[in-house]
């Protein structure tokens, strides 16, 4: 069951869901979601002559990205075919009986901006800023700005509280992230 605006607001008031800094609910709270804003850092992939990334070879991940910081009203241009990682301005804490689902905003989607490629769910017990996998699938460069509303977060109720909250699992790779963090898929090799 997806929470309604009333239920989301009640969970904020009780402290069950925590968002910091809290967006202006008059603007950000929709019928079944809350809009979150774009952070200030962008992890962009560099052009390279490296022939491939090997998911089992950590050395093939090195020197592929640059971290770019932008101020509040300083634009960041996303070119066609470009892919980058960013985070929400807000840090989110999700209780152990809810899951979060990230969706892009329709207004940006209509410009060709995709906010998440595949990682659109946030497990019960999540704490940290939400990662955004941003790409421009359109034909025209698009400028975005830190602190603009960029995505929506929905909350879904679990049938019962999870026994494995995200922050308690040893295998959780992105606990408490605040900045864009690149792939940690090579740590899968250490799993049993």
Describe this structure in words.
This protein starts with a helix and ends in a 35-residue tail after the last strand. It has one domain (5-46, 63-162): Deoxyuridine triphosphatase (dUTPase) (Deoxyuridine 5'-Triphosphate Nucleotidohydrolase, Chain A, Distorted Sandwich). The protein contains three helices and eleven strands, in the order H-E-H-E-E-E-E-E-H-E-E-E-E-E. Helices cover 9% and strands 35% of the residues. It comes from Candidatus Doudnabacteria bacterium RIFCSPLOWO2_02_FULL_48_13. It catalyses: dCTP + H2O + H(+) = dUTP + NH4(+). One of its GO terms (biological process) is dUTP biosynthetic process.
SSE string, helix = H, strand = E? HEHEEEEEHEEEEE
- SS-based structural class? mainly beta
State the end-to-end CA separation: 34 Å
CATH class: Mainly Beta
**What fraction, in percent, of the residue positions are helical?**
under 10%
Q: Per DSSP, what share of the residues sits in E-state strands of 2 or more residues?
A: 25-35%
SS summary, helix count: 3
**CATH-derived topology:** Deoxyuridine 5'-Triphosphate Nucleotidohydrolase, Chain A
In the predicted model, the low-confidence regions spanning at least 5 consecutive residues are none
The radius of gyration computed from the alpha-carbon positions, rounded to a whole number of angstroms, is 17 Å
DSSP, total strands:
11
* Rounded average pLDDT: 88
GO biological process, one term: dUMP biosynthetic process
Function: Catalyzes the deamination of dCTP to dUTP.
GO molecular function, one term: nucleotide binding
Active site: 133 (proton donor/acceptor)
């Amino acid at each position: 069951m997806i929470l309604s605006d009333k239920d989301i607001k009640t969970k904020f008031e009780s402290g069950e869901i925590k968002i910091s800094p809290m967006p202006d609910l008059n603007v950000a709270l929709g019928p079944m979601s809350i809009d979150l804003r774009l952070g200030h850092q962008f992890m962009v992939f560099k052009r390279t002559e490296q022939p491939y990334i090997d998911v089992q070879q950590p050395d093939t991940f090195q020197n592929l990205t640059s971290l770019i910081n932008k101020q509040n009203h300083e634009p960041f241009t996303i070119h066609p075919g470009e892919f980058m990682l960013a985070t929400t301005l807000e840090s989110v804490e999700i209780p152990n009986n809810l899951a979060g689902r990230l969706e892009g905003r329709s207004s940006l989607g209509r410009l060709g901006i995709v906010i998440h490629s595949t990682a659109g769910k946030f497990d019960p017990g999540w704490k940290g800023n939400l990662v955004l996998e941003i790409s421009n699938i359109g034909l025209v460069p698009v400028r975005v700005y830190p602190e603009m509303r960029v995505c929506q977060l929905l909350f879904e109720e679990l049938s019962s509280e999870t026994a494995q909250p995200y922050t308690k699992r040893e295998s959780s790779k992105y606990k408490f992230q605040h900045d864009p963090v690149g792939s940690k898929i090579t740590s899968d090799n250490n799993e049993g």
